[in-house]
Amino acid sequence: MRGCLNDTWQTQEWKEKAAEFIKGKNCEWCGSTENLVPHHPKRKGGYTHSEYVSLDGCFVLCTKCNFMEDLGFRICPNCKKHYYKPKRGKESLCWECFAKTPFGQKVKEYYEKHPGERKRNRRIKH
After folding, report:
1. Per the structure, how many domains does the chain have?
2. Tens-digit pLDDT profile for residues 81-98
3. Which class for 22: exposed (0-12), middle (13-18), buried (19 or more C-beta within 10 A)?
4. Is 14:51 a contact under the CB 8 Å cutoff?
5. Which of 5, 46, 52, 126 makes a 20 to 30 Å CA pair with 106?
6. Are 45 and 66 found together in one domain?
7. How much is the average pLDDT of 50-68?
8. Do residue 1 and residue 49 come from a single domain?
9. pLDDT tier at 124 (50, 70, 90 boundaries)?
10. Domain co-membership, 94 together with 54
């Protein structure tokens, strides 16, 4: 049965497998060693209980990175501190790292000179 797996997280089997899976690992995005969880990649149709518990295809994230990934964000590959929302599946940089690039400096200068433009440009649908 696919669908809600809330009961799975409460089972002793799940707790033991999850603890063993994350043992000695770091968050694959930010490197944290605290509040780690096995992360299941999104999959069309979801997971059955046995598929979910097997942890096949999982990787380790901290709860913050796991939450951000669930919202569609990615961690900046440059600084590994800030998050960004990828555009059409393309890897990018967070604003802080982008603003340090030559092109990013030009964009930052433009928005500093035209502060209302940034808000107005967010409403434009591409």
Report:
1. 2
2. 999 888 876 678 888 898
3. buried
4. no
5. 126
6. yes
7. 89
8. yes
9. very low
10. no
Q: What are phi and psi of 31, to 5 degrees?
A: 90, 0
Choose one of 71, 101, 116: the last residue of a domain: 71
Q: Are residues 36 and 87 in the same domain?
A: no
More reliable by pLDDT, 77 or 2:
77
Residue type (1 letter), 39? H
Judge if 87 and 38 occupy the same domain: no
Q: Is the whole model's pTM more than 0.85, yes or no?
A: no
- Please report which confidence band the pLDDT of residue 59 belongs to, taking 50, 70 and 90 as the band edges: very high
HEC sequence for the chain: CCCCCHHHHHCHHHHHHHHHHHCCCCCCCCCCCCCEEEECCCCCCCCCHHHHHHCCCCEEEEHHHHHHHHCCCEECCCCCCCEECCECCECCCCHHHHCCCHHHHHHHHHHHHCHHHHHHHHCCCC
Name the CA dihedral angle for 41, 82, 80, 76, rounded to a multiple of 10 degrees: 70
Determine the average pLDDT of the residues in 23-31: 95
Specify whether 64 is located in the same domain as 115. no
